[in-house]
What we know:
By secondary structure, the protein is of the alpha/beta class. It has two domains: 21-50 and 311-456, Alpha-Beta Complex (Aspartate Aminotransferase, domain 1); 58-308, Type I PLP-dependent aspartate aminotransferase-like (Major domain) (Aspartate Aminotransferase, domain 2). It has 16 helices and 16 strands. The strands form six sheets. The chain has a five-stranded mixed β-sheet with strand order 2-8-7-6-5, sandwiched between helices. Helix 8 (218-228) crosses helix 12. Pyridoxal-5'-phosphate is lined by residues 51, 98-100, 123, 125-126, 181, 185, 214, 216, 254, 256-257, 265.
Amino acid sequence: MKTIIEPFKIKSVEPIRFTTPEEREEVLRKGFYNLFLVRAEDVLIDLLTDSGTNAMSADQWAGMMRGDESYAGARSFYRFERKVRELTGFKHIIPTHQGRAAERILFSLTGGKGKVVPNNSHFDTTRANVEFSGAEAVDLPTAEGRDPELIADFKGNMDTGALETLIRKVGPGSIPLCMITVTNNSGGGQPVSLANIRETGAICKRHGIPLFLDACRFAENAYFIKMRERGYASVPVKEIVSEMFSLADGATMSAKKDAIVNMGGFLAMNDDALASGARNLLIVTEGFPTYGGLAGRDLEAIAQGLDEVLDERYLEYRIRSVAYLGERLAAAGVPILQPPGGHAVYLNASKFLPQITPDRYPGQSLVVELFRRGGIRSVEIGSVMFGRRGAGGEFIPARMELVRLAIPRRVYTQSHIDYVIEVVLECYENRARFPGYRIVEEPAMLRHFTAKFEPILR
Length: 458
Ligand SMILES: *Cc1c(COP(=O)(O)O)cnc(C)c1O
């Protein structure tokens, strides 16, 4: 087979800035070794996130000029609504400024004290919105999904046995809705099978519980189904997407992922009463129901992006280019979370840097070295993000020490990725010398964004 190439050519370019090792050392020192505190222009290759970092197409930019900025009933809204309905089949389509706004509205209406919301794995904003409502967020990944080294097709699946047990334990009346996140972001960008969505839907239906998809990466998930699930190899991705949504009663979406835009989202559902409540909340906090916190031009770009993301050449390139990064690293012996996900490769920092104990943040050490040696920005997903202090002040580590290399859509070429591979391999060769870190200042909540670090030099 020939090389899978980027299915686009480049019309507009954005220069990236090269820095010297001395400059990067200064940037690290001034940013207190926290890459969230570093200016983007000091970064050469930015793999912090795939959210809102996408490159839009010529047709999307043309759509921006066609955007109808009327307050009510804008043409752009109707194009957006038609596109989302065609894709999802849901009756009510409500635009929001991003995914978490859809979550806030949904859980304000359905959550509350005493309620329990199951999910294959809550994304952090989803969990925060469930908990903010007073409800409890329960993650139900499968045993397969919790094993970082196991190579399996659908490690994002919901543990349906655990779901039944939960329903029996708390009663269906306490569960306002059940969610499935596709792909499973917190679980390493792993896909969920159609069989699993179908089975989860059937369990929910039996107990009268609505099923919602957290649909941020619906197209990447559908492509994995086409590649890996029996019977779908020759089914068009668009039909797989329709089948996924047909098994659910509603969805939340961050358009910053698979709508290939920089801002936007939506909430969609079939239930009339819930939709009416959602539109009322939308007007209070987001905007009138035909724009929901977005400009008309944003709605145009989303509608166009939702078309482009279903192009199978695009999806082949997208999934293949992430796998390429993962495969090359694994072949050189670099410990990664297997298999590579749809939007990111996760380095296993506790295996990469076994000499650094979790309380000295091996993930943070690796994040710093990737920047120091190559100007690459990544993100720690380990004890900096999820570590806690127990009642006696003792350190409680995260379940895993990971570093995520998230790949923005259509932004970097294969030679950028080859460069990333070279830098990771250079880090791997020199790993014995990397220091651990201590936190010298941290806020009360979400400390990874603003904490200040200092290397522990022997
Ligand atoms: C990004 C994301 C969200 C939240 O969307 P925002 O647009 O960032 O508010 C929710 N769920 C998942 C799975 C996500 O990846």
